[in-house]
Design brief:
Blueprint (H helix, E strand, L loop, with lengths): L6 H12 L6 H10 L3 E4 L3 E2 L3 H11 L4 E4 L2 E3 L4 E2 L4 E3 L5 H8 L4 H12 L7 H15 L4 E2 L8 E3 L21 E2 L3 E5 L6 E4 L3 E5 L2 E3 L7 H15 L9 E8 L3 H6 L10 H9 L4 E4 L6 E3 L4 E15 L2 E2 L5 E2 L2 E13 L5 E2 L9 H20 L3 E5 L9 E6 L6 H10 L9 E6 L7 H11 L2 H4 E7 L12 E8 L21 H10 L6
Parallel strand pairs: 1-3, 2-4, 6-21, 7-15, 23-24, 24-26
Antiparallel strand pairs: 3-6, 4-5, 8-20, 9-12, 10-11, 10-14, 12-13, 13-20, 14-17, 15-16, 17-20, 18-19, 22-23, 25-26
Helix pairs in contact: 5-10
Length: about 525
């Protein structure tokens, strides 16, 4: 069967022709400002705690992005020349502006269309498919000779102290870089990984690298450890892993670092797919990596097998502090930047906050991938209070006995959903985004002993309630209607719904009721 792009794809392509991808963070800031989605703060505000408190209040009121033009540090006596941008993605509207779509479902539909492509069967099918393949090929990252991030190259007198890096919460161990794009390359396969890992600042040229054990960067580091242990007497063991950290870029590129992509999908390639234009990359000065040419700031350096240090505590996205642990230290070797960079930060804590809206985008964008592997899934929802991985509500079109349990186990087997602590499976006619409806139906439908199951497996490294670090239990709830073939022999009652004829009669008399 010949693949034919849907009308939705054509509509999206037309919109993108009218609105080119954001070139960099500055063009996105200008767009936010023109849409009334950004507030410039001209009053001095302290990077230690004050900016967090201001942003937390604005974020929970679903207020605008904030550009602090005069950040300062009373502790250090610093007034920073670099402005600080925060709450950038802190609303549904700003997420839509970031991806240049009227609805996140438009991007989900593009992903669905891409996954639905079928191999052409004959010559004419192949010819007709060529434009689509050419369009996909145009998303690949493009290496260029230079870019704005190379306007200033600092190899000697560089310092992190020049940037308005925040201490977010009172018990934090120090200041943290919170919205980086951390770039590494696998020593085994040569594949690039881009992740978002917080970085506690130790001094002017050293930070922690908090990549959790399940993350791509951590796997690259572990492979280096294994190689060092296997090295023979005559072979110098590898000890260092090159790392580059990009701070600030166009919104699609920034968001690519937080997406739970399959291991073999390059984040910058997916960013090109999101923005419909390739990400331009430039080679680093002191490490063998490429970074976005239009980034604001790039930190070049390495992590060393012999330098593992305490990191934390840190006020985390769970709403609780993640406690001290040990992680590799990141040593800077060079900083490149724009002449007029903007430092981008975020805060996490008790929801809802900015990261909820980023998580909501992940939910919508990756529903097509889940449906590809689990076609019975109708919709899913990650409530803000569930902190992404604590609760997933899934609606399915049930087809056979035990279907809900099959879906639970399949979700726990998906790389992007393996840490989900609680999964509630409901019928296809339940609105998973209406928590009152979900609670009503689930609590009415379950017999707790029969319908709740527990399994053991990996949990998020930030999970503080598990019996062991990174290992604990998970719970699945089958809140679907029960069938005789599942051992339910009693009648299942209908929901209370008024008949349509009565509704129409009341509609016609409503104005006369004076209600």
């Amino acid at each position: 069967m010949l693949f034919r792009p849907s009308s939705c794809w054509h509509r999206g392509a037309k919109r993108r022709e009218q609105s080119m991808a954001y070139k960099d963070l500055h063009t996105f800031i200008a767009k936010l400002e023109s849409e009334g989605e950004l507030k410039r703060i001209g009053v001095e505000a302290d990077v230690d705690l004050e900016i967090t408190e201001i942003t937390d209040r604005v974020s929970k009121a679903q207020g605008p992005a904030l550009l602090f033009e005069r950040p300062r540090s009373a502790r250090d006596g610093m007034r920073y020349s670099v402005p600080l941008l925060i709450n950038t993605f802190g609303s549904l509207r700003r997420m839509q502006l970031a991806l240049q779509v009227p609805s996140l479902e438009d991007v989900a539909q593009r992903i669905e269309d891409l996954l639905a492509m079928k191999p052409p069967e004959g010559f004419f099918d192949k010819v007709k498919l060529l434009p689509k393949l050419a369009e996909i090929g145009s998303f690949f990252p493009k290496t260029v000779n230079s870019g704005p991030v190379k306007e200033i190259i600092e190899r000697e007198s560089f310092s992190l102290a020049r940037f308005p890096i925040m201490k977010c919460w009172p018990q934090d161990a120090g200041r943290f870089i919170t919205l980086p794009m951390v770039i590494t390359r696998s020593p085994k396969t040569g594949r690039r990984n881009v992740g978002c890992y917080r970085m506690q600042v130790y001094d002017e040229r050293t930070t922690a690298m908090h990549w959790q054990i399940h993350k791509g960067g951590a796997e690259h580091f572990r492979w280096l450890e294994r190689q060092a242990k296997r090295a023979g007497d005559g072979d110098p063991p590898p000890h260092r892993l090159d790392v580059a950290v990009a701070l600030g870029a166009d919104p699609a590129t920034m968001l690519s670092a937080i997406l739970p992509l399959p291991e073999d999908v390059d984040e910058f390639l997916f960013a090109g797919f999101l923005r419909q234009q390739p990400v331009e990359l430039v080679r680093c000065e002191t490490v063998d990596l490429e970074v976005p040419a239009h980034a604001e700031i790039v930190l070049e350096g390495y992590v060393d097998l012999d330098d593992i240090r305490p990191e934390g505590p840190f006020g985390d996205h769970t709403g609780f502090y993640s406690l001290e642990d040990r992680f590799p230290a990141f040593h800077l070797t060079c900083i490149t930047r724009r002449r007029d960079p903007v430092y981008v930060s975020t805060i996490v804590g008790r929801p809802p906050m900015e990261d909820y809206w980023m998580g909501h985008a992940v939910e919508r964008l990756f529903l097509p991938l889940m449906r590809r592997q689990l076609p019975e899934v109708v919709d899913m929802h990650l409530p803000a209070e569930g902190i992404f991985h604590n609760l997933m509500i899934v609606a399915i079109r049930k087809s056979y006995p035990g279907h809900a349990r099959k879906v639970m186990n399949a979700i726990w087997g998906l790389p992007g959903a393996m840490f989900t602590k609680c999964i509630v499976v409901v019928d296809h006619d339940t609105d998973v985004h209406n928590l009152r409806e979900v609670a009503w139906k689930a609590l009415n439908h379950i017999d707790p002993e029969r319908d709740i199951q527990f399994v053991l497996g990996p949990v998020d490294q930030l999970e503080h309630a598990s019996r062991l670090p990174s290992f604990g239990s998970k719970m699945g709830v089958d809140a679907t209607r029960k069938w005789p073939s599942e051992g339910f022999s009693r009648p299942w009652p209908d929901e209370i719904v008024m008949d349509e004829e009565t509704k129409r009669r009341v509609d016609s008399m409503w104005k006369n009721l004076g209600l």
